[in-house]
Amino acid sequence: MGITRLFSTPQLPPVGAGDLAVVTGATSGIGEATARLLVEEGFRVVGTTRRPEGVDKRIEGVTYVGLDLGDPASIEACAAEILALGTPAVLVNNAGESQSGPFEELPRDALERLFQVNVIGHVDLTQRLLPAMRAAGRGRVVMVGSMLGSFPLGFRSSYVASKAAIKGFASAARREVAPFGIGFTTLEPGSIATGLSARRTTYVDESGPYAAEFGRMLRRLNRNESRGISAERVAREVLRPIRAARPRPHYAVGSMAPVAFALSRVVPQQVMLNVISAKHDL
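Above: the chain sequence. Below: its structure as tokens.
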């Protein structure tokens, strides 16, 4: 292997105005903001939502299709509906569930649902769209993860694991699809002010041994998110690997991401774990 190849990122065919872009979870938060920006960029945008008939704030230029990532039949139907509209040049896997709870107390059915929605569902949808993208010889796939996938936090183990899994899929698949002109990237946002705190699922025994620390963590987590960056700021970061001729494997934004990742390369892992814990009152 030559030195040039060792340090290079493959150059990919461009995608842009007139191309089809798919954004999962396009009716709120990062997904909605990303869909808006892609329309402004001239893409034809398909936005997924669990209830397409009930979308209140419809974005002009977005076609809404139904998708329940927890239902394999829904994923199959959604992929067919997308492909009937054309070959996607961009896929932004954004939809998901945020979950918290002590490791010991997480119910099996909750874990299975989380991994179906946050990991397997996205993999399934991507697998169904990739053949058309591969045949077209170009495309970008962006997995929206979380900085917690790189910097784990106590009482968020299931969510951390799901985001680490998505990053692992993307990082490995990246080499497989690059020869076909397709780029895989993971974007890891930090704390985001999107109102997600109100929708997070939590599992904890309120009279159990972990309740006090869990409560402290959750209060600080909610506070950090309320002061976090906007969904629009994250969406602008999503566009970077889409626009780039040589998209990087990994992007991160918010929560002092440049400092956090630089620090993680020079200090022991336990130091970073302690820093993340302290930031969340643990």
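The beta strands are 20-23, 44-49, 62-66, 88-93, 99-100, 139-144, 182-189, 201-202, 250-253.
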